[in-house]
Predict the structure.
Amino acid sequence: MNTNYKTSIKDTDKIYDLVVIMPAYNEAEHITENLLEAARLIHSFQDDFSIIAVNDGSSDATEERIIDASSKSPHIEYISYSKNKGKGGAIKEGVKLANGKYIAFLDSDLELAPTMLKEFLSNLKNKNAQIAIGSKLHKDSKLHYPLTRRIMSLGYYFMLKLMFKLDIKDTQTGIKLFEQDVIKPICDNLITTGFAFDIEILATASKQGHKIIEMPITLNYSRDDREKSRISFKTITNVFKDTIRIKKHIRSI
């Protein structure tokens, strides 16, 4: 076994009602308290759940902080490896080991509150859907979000509408919920692991006939200048390149 790959997940036969995957890259400063807070909030509406924190090849102390959080809560499990795979790669690793009736993705910065998953679960069941996604462009969403990021989201929406004809306004918000039987086979065949992985998942699911519903969110943007640098011109260019690759891939399915 790769010695650079670590996981606390031992009981692979245990099926949870809900598994929440939280990818983290160089989040040592806040990841311990964020994971413990996520566990506390999810436990307020869900008893049978697990959080899988994925350390995506961080160069800081993220791994140690995640392990610390895991030692303090029975609901927190982890996966850690040394090579950065991108957010989509981290999600893919988490989905691979997740075993729950429902599997959620949640950003580890907690700008999106885990408690929103309660309404996601309820609506998924009541509306006979297989996927529920948070949407910044939902009419009932409440946003504290920079204008530049709003413009980027709107521009990406129009591009996706033209390319994939998806009846979805926002594919990129970092809170999503899936039936396990839907997300596992899709993640097994992902061709992109960067920021565009969300569109590949949702475009594939849509083509397979799965029902996707959009949910309103409350977003409190709190990222600093270090985080802003992650969304560079190169990042945006790579997202567009990956989106074109995904379009070609979806045609072949």
Notes: Strands lie at 6-7, 16-24, 49-56, 76-81, 100-106, 131-135, 142-144, 175-179, 212-216, 218-220. The first strand starts at residue 6 and ends at 7.
